[in-house]
From TrEMBL:
InterPro entries for the chain: Rce1, Rce1/LyrA-like_dom
Domain (CAAX prenyl protease 2/Lysostaphin resistance protein A-like) ranges: 103-171
Official protein name in the record: CAAX prenyl protease 2
Protein family according to the UniProt entry: Belongs to the peptidase U48 family.
Length: 175
């Protein structure tokens, strides 16, 4: 899973699927006649109206959610906070991250493609069928099911006990 060749193959497959997903939404819109005349980007949630609060508020919420673990890390770290910030903000540290395939997969490619497929493409298709409320709660369930392959991977390579693997998967799925 973490071998660079495997990561590159997965990048390619994700690029293909992510490129096909908007086309599926477009085809679905044409076949069902739901929301005719709406542009594909608008249907997928890409619009300039309200872009700043839509981008800023989730970012602030994410920052607040990570304050707890960051504070814990700073208390557990033998170096002081300013030294830690210097390391994290150093250009060399970012250059190292941008050349690390695992970092790119986990921090850039996966979040972008998952948001595209599970929110921008799936939500407009589910909302007219189920209503907005159920669609908002159904998309994360599909997202969780899409990650069940991690269970099989862990079982195949015996990375932990069966009970521990299923407990971890149940926790992640419920989250």
């Amino acid at each position: 899973r973490d071998h660079p060749a495997v990561i590159k193959r997965r990048f390619t497959s994700v690029l293909v699927v992510s490129s096909l997903s908007p086309l599926c939404v477009l085809l679905w819109r044409e076949l069902t006649g739901i929301q005719p005349g709406t542009s594909l980007l608008t249907l997928m949630g890409f619009r300039l109206e309200g872009i700043f609060p839509a981008a800023l508020l989730p970012l602030l919420l994410t920052m607040i959610l990570f304050l707890g673990p960051l504070m814990q890390l700073s208390m557990d770290c033998p170096c002081d906070l300013t030294d830690g910030l210097k390391v994290v903000l150093a250009p060399r540290s970012w250059a190292r991250c941008l050349t690390d395939m695992r970092w790119l997969r986990n921090q850039v490619i996966a979040p972008l493609t998952e948001e595209l497929v599970f929110r921008a493409c799936m939500l407009p298709m589910l909302a007219p069928c189920t209503g907005l409320g159920p669609a908002v709660f159904t998309c994360p369930l599909f997202f969780g099911v899409a990650h069940f392959h991690h269970i099989f991977e862990q079982l195949r390579f015996r990375q932990s006990s069966v009970g521990s693997i299923f407990l971890s998967a149940a926790f992640q799925f419920s989250y």
